[in-house]
Amino acid sequence: MTTTRAADRARLGHRLRHASRHPDRVVPYLRRLGRDWRLRLTTRDHVAYYRAVMKADTARSPSAAVGSATEERWLALGEMQFDYLLRHGLSPKDRMLEIGCGNLRAGWRFIDYLRPGHYHGVDISPEILFAAADTVAERGLQAKVPHLTLVRDLRLSALPAGYFTVVHAHSVFSHSPIEVVDECLRNVARVMAPRAFFDFTFNRTEGEHHHVLREDFYYRADTLTELAASHGLWARVMEDWERLPHKQSKIRVRCVRR
Ligand SMILES: C[S@@+](CC[C@H](N)C(=O)[O-])C[C@H]1O[C@@H](n2cnc3c(N)ncnc32)[C@H](O)[C@@H]1O
């Protein structure tokens, strides 16, 4: 696991080796490369860039847009996130903020489990939020009154102070440059209740942080724990998550002064 994580996927050598092992992925990669060039010229910042990526991907398939090629994978990935938090004591009384909620791959399970009105999902993509609303309807979860909000940044400025007991961001920082991660870590403490925690996953590298096509970002764990510390947050890598069949690592942060 560590060896794969150590690879710098932006290096030409890695890309050529990857292409020779997976020739079927070359054409989709070249398509993404073309899109990367086009979006770089037509979008003003990362959020606008990634919103355009999500718009195009969601039009093809909302499940694939959040990273699950099949319905089975979509269900399994959501279940893994849900079960993990259950093992860590998630209770129906918790008030959850899910950052980058997507089409509620895990969110529908949280909505179903939590008390009405206790789930808040935010996302930068209107298209994926329409798909999230479809998921609420398809799962018959209307009476749980989930809050789904479109955001343009991660300042979380419209959310109440000291309110959320659990904050969750799965596969969001894996698509975010460091300034977006920094913005989130700078602002998240304000909305966290005393003793709340914030779990986020990230693509881990042991080398220099890097990105592939501005869609996939790779960070060292200590880069992120130090960034959290610079915002008064205490952070640790969740070792029990490492044992699960998932390529990303998970960090949990808490507020130090509470
Ligand atoms: C790979 S999907 C994961 C969705 C969901 N967390 C899950 O596990 O199914 C990443 C989601 O994060 C959203 N996203 C990306 N960057 C974001 C940002 N800066 N703020 C809020 N949402 C963001 C994307 O629009 C997308 O819905």
Share of residues in strands? 15-25%
Helical run tally: 11
User: Main sheet, how many strands, which sense, barrel?
Assistant: 9 strands, mixed
**Which architecture per CATH?**
3-Layer(aba) Sandwich
Tell me the name of the CATH homologous superfamily: Vaccinia Virus protein VP39
Shape: globular
Overall tally of domains: 1
Mean pLDDT: 91
Radius of gyration: 18 Å
SS elements, strand count:
9
Helix content bin? 40-55%
Name the CATH class.
Alpha Beta
- N-end to C-end Cα span: 35 Å
* Topology order in helix (H) and strand (E) letters: HHHHHHEHEHEEHEEEHEHE
Distinct small-molecule ligands in the complex: S-adenosylmethionine
Alpha-beta classification: alpha/beta
> Could you list the spans in which at least 5 consecutive residues all have pLDDT below 50?
none
Query: What's the CATH topology name?
Result: Rossmann fold
